[in-house]
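Dear colleagues,

For the upcoming journal club I promised to circulate an example of a predicted protein-ligand complex. I picked one with flavin-adenine dinucleotide because it came up in last month's discussion. The inputs are reproduced below in full, followed by the predicted structure.
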Amino acid sequence: MPRVTIIGAGLAGSLLAIYLAKRGIEVDVYEARGEMRLEQVDAGRSINLALSDRGITALRQVGMDEYMLAEAVPMYGRMVHAPTGDTKLLPYSGRKGEYINSVSRAGLNIALLNEAEKYPGARFHFNMRCADFDCGSGEARFDSGTIVTNDTTIATDGAGSAVRQSMKEQMPNFIESSIFLEHGYKELHIPPRAGDHQLEKNALHIWPRHRFMMIALPNFDGSFTCTLFLAHKGENLSGNEGAPREGESSQCTRPTGRVSASTAAFDQLTDDASVLAFFEKEFPDAVPLMPTLVEDFFHNPTGNLGTIKCSPWNVNGKALLLGDAAHAMVPFYGQGMNCAFEDVRVLASLIDENGPDWQTTFADFEEQRKPNADAICDMAEENFYEMRDAVADPVFQRKRELETKLEQTYPDYFSKYSMVTFREDMPYAEAKARGNAQDQHLMKICSEISSANDLDLDHVIESVRRAN
Ligand SMILES: Cc1cc2nc3c(=O)[nH]c(=O)nc-3n(C[C@H](O)[C@H](O)[C@H](O)COP(=O)(O)OP(=O)(O)OC[C@H]3O[C@@H](n4cnc5c(N)ncnc54)[C@H](O)[C@@H]3O)c2cc1C
């Protein structure tokens, strides 16, 4: 039987272990963290994630979809919160049954570990941090001093991949680009009230504020996990702290440590007063729901957001990068995990075709997946600006209304969001090309009208079909 080393027992590594073990392949999975089922370990970057069709399809192939969806909270649309406190639901799709699901990262990871361990050929080794990988010999070396060589190695060790770092150092043709947003993120908490959700349960809540935003995803236990996306560094305020900015009221009576929207940044939110003042000004409807806001703000880490693209992913059949190790993306399309799960499904189908010919399988994998990974990385970055700015723009809101009507009326119409999120049969690169052309066309139409109700839908769909 072939033997495969997997580095990293996160979401992609654990699912991959199931796929390979199911095929009779012996897998040894080495994970840097402790055993998350026995001890409290940092589950990773976000507490919950949006699981959608590409990820569900990959889970279904190993019989894990229904199990995971049983504890997921469906989210049917974006609930946009205006600064006035007014809310508006923008459905994700005009079609019934097309929605995304909020799942617990730790719950999903543990379920995948449990499932993988049902196969005697799958073994997990915790507290084993890979230090480097020898691209010539195929040896994976660990901090503990252990050296492992199996038939091949698949690196699912995430955005900071040690294997990718070794490839960069040892392969002269290795290219890597990493671009970090000036924004970071921080997770905050809305607890349940009397066991129930305090906001509409079946929606992804967004407070878009142009230069920053907050989102909240529901958890199964009645709570929400909020994520504030904000610039790390603000403008230099020296000598000017607290003074009103141009366009701001000079009668503003906020407490000391005040931060104006134009300068808001993590480095400006340094004490309880500045945090409270910022939230009360920008997210007034959320503050009463967040009793531990200040404690959470200072206790929880501020994370970085970046896009990593690299090539090659294949080291002559001796190693392969997969998931975030190959293509980390910003989280604004909710696709990082879904894309990593799709990677696993595609790799398994190529193993079925090629058998344990790792060089052919890995080369085919990279050829198929690289253009699609690049496309979703780009779209994820573009969606940051859409969520932060456009969802609050009336033309964009009319376009979403029009798209919902088109999806309700014409079975062949899919918005770009739907192509990415609900069309697991459509490669990301195709969704990007078709979606961008369609978006441009519809934005133009919606900029010339005052209501989507004014439009003749048959006329619009014909023009969309022609534009495609
Ligand atoms: C704030 C935020 C929100 C997100 N929301 C969504 C979402 O809604 N939907 C979605 O689809 N995606 C989302 N993502 C993206 C998603 O988290 C990642 O794409 C996904 O976790 C990738 O899985 P992975 O297994 O490749 O990497 P990871 O989940 O990062 O797993 C890597 C594993 O490797 C281990 N490891 C690391 N280094 C080593 C080493 N040297 N040796 C051994 N083990 C190692 C780590 O401990 C970890 O267990 C979000 C990301 C962020 C940051």
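Two points we might discuss: The pocket of flavin-adenine dinucleotide is lined by residues 7-13, 30-33, 44-46, 49-50, 129-130, 156-158, 162, 185, 227, 323-325, 331, 334-338, 340 (CB under 6 Å). The longest strand covers residues 175-190.

See you all on Thursday,
B. R.
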